Amino acid sequence: MTGIARRCSKALVLLASLVPATVSSQSAPELQLSVESAEIAESEIEADVQLQEKLQEEGLASEVELRRFRSRLARARIETEKAKAALTSALPPVRLLSVTRSQQRSGQPRIRLRFGSNGTAAERFGQSAIISVEHEGLVVGRPFQQLLTFAAGASSPSELEFELIRDVTEVSVVSISGSRRDEIKVPVQRDAGLTAIQLSCLNSSQDGSLGETVNFDVIVERSRSEISEVQLELRGLPTGFSYEILDQSKSSRLRRIQFPQGVDRVPVVARISVPEKDSANWSDKELALVLVAGAPEGDEELADLTLLLRAIGRPELDLLAETLSVKLEAGTGREIPLTVVNSGRAAAQDVRVIVAAPLGLSVEALPVVIRAIEAGQQSAMILKLQLGADAVEGDYEVRVHVVSERTAVYARSKETTIRVMGTRRANGLFAVAVLGGIALASAWTIRRRRRSADSKVV
Length: 458
Prior knowledge:
alpha+beta, 5-stranded mixed β-sheet, 5 helices, 29 strands
């Protein structure tokens, strides 16, 4: 055996002794020494492989011998990685430095977790862990899990952000590294950079139709307990608009928002009333309104929030019929022209006729659907009536109206009633008999006149 081969064999024996099958009984410092020894043995074998490659190029070593050395190097690298994996599993968990809560403008709470590596071994070889945020056994952070990685040689803290599915005051931060699971329960701290008052709204951008009210669900939150009440004011409303601040149940109007002891978040409703008519040409345009939270006394502004409102016009539908009264014999039909008029300020889409007809009278509207009627325009339809052949004689009422359901605002016309006077058709056999009788009577009269004339001539 050559000297190179003997050194490789000794290095592999050393690796086998450094990485036992069961590492749970070894401490982190012992495993760190194992990794360092494995890396030394790997570097020695790698140097021998490089030397063997030069000998093979000069024809002093065979290809088979070179492959054997390369195989030994591959096994050495595997043993080194196994030693590193054993060390990683034995390392203390990552250090949790802080848990800070913040809030988005939309009102969605978030927390920021700040971690630090744990010891020189983690800084030298790197460390990674799967992090999740739980509360009472349930995951409340989104994403549900994140990978925290400290690269080898990195010593600066690392941060992860989670969106809170449920707003809680304390969380359990769970860290999974290898087969190790660690959990630490901590209170959630408020971000020191937050202002004294924060305003948020989950539905901060809405459409409101003319003549109706729009409700914005606002959350008023304080970060300092010495603030006991604030006053809300909505700015930027055009002429004709009005607003009021209500409690969460929408039953009481509020002049000031008060924070009871131990309560830091108060939900309120900012209700805006949209005028019935557009007097300043602001419809179908987005209005940027500013909700300001101020101190009850003085002019100090503590926070503001932008609310977006687009006042949209609504379609106004009217249904006109050419006639409101028709007469039909049993078994006959008729078409009645209809006109649908949109006198509103918005287009009506998917306009259809809704019909209520009694038994014995069938009614059909054509076309079935009018795709769109623009504001100030009209469209024609046909109402086809058919009285059954065995329908009884009498009056029938047809009630019709039109609706537009695919518009931003539901629109419906007033109901129109069409009266149908139904009569029975004359019996065919009776008519033939009557006509036959008339014909016989006429023939008898003519014959009688001829006989009278003949007798006078004689």
